[in-house]
Design a protein that fits this description.
Elements (H helix, E strand, L loop, with lengths): L5 E5 L6 H10 L4 E7 L11 E5 L4 H8 L4 E4 L9 H11 L3 E3 L10 H4 L5 H16 L3 E6 L2 E2 H6 L12 E3 L5 E5 L1 H13 L7 E4 L3 E4 H11 L8 E3 L1 H13 L9 H9 L12 H4 L6 H11 L3
Helix pairs in contact: 1-7, 2-3, 8-12, 9-10
Amino acid sequence: MSAIKNVALIGAAGGLGPTVLNKVVASGVFTVTVLRREGSKSTYPAGITVVDVDFESPDALKAALAGQEAVISLVGVPGLAAQTQVIDAAIAAGVKRFIPSDFGSDLDNPLARKLPVFAHKVQVADYLAEKSRETALTYTLVSNAAFLDWGLERHFLLNTADYKPALYDGGNTIFSATTLDSVGDAVVSILKHPEETKNRRVYIENIKISQNRLLALAQQVAPGKPWLPQQVSIDAIVKEADEKLAKGDYAPENFIPYLFRALNDPAYGPSFQKTDNELLGIKSVDENYVIELFKRIIKQ
């Protein structure tokens, strides 16, 4: 597969978007275009080419993607299902590579694939696999498991805000975790290694760790705080979420228990058995990195 030069990003203003955009631009290798939804007030750094697009119009999408060789999708939950429309437009425009917003758990794991929270991601991944057999479009899926810095800063991996973190099923499950920067580095490397990353899932991680180990490090940083961890049953919170979804209650918070299952139940593959770190140039971090994060996050 020939080298990729022209790259378009969608969803570049979201949680992961700015980091990936900055990494792709900073590489100095690619000509970068951001596709922005018409009417959006999102802003981007000076010098970034921004094209406003009607994402509901196949013709407008095709025109916006003309000349692009790769598309990086960084859309959030509301836009996941609509990625199939962008894929169709990418095929029509002759795009070579599509990287969907699949970042997170290993959705090649049969159990993880069935979790309701991942339904749209699985749908898009399957659609890409189908289209790659029928057309010249190729794809790469990225699994990074937990977002390390983002997850700690937002008290998702371990809630240190009130010193009463929930420990799921005892907190001993080892999971892979990756920083936002490393995800951005991986995306750049995928674009630089199109043949080696063609039509498959790549796995990256900076560290393997558990909730209990995170708690120990947090207590090391702030030993004088009134730590009182709470034991939570994954089965219990998932059962409650199942019941709510069965009643048609699709509030975003009702999908969160499935994320905790994906990260804290060993059967769902949260600790990667193999990675593409060497190929993609992703380096490991040690617990000192986590300690420095906690020094910023935990109120002193």
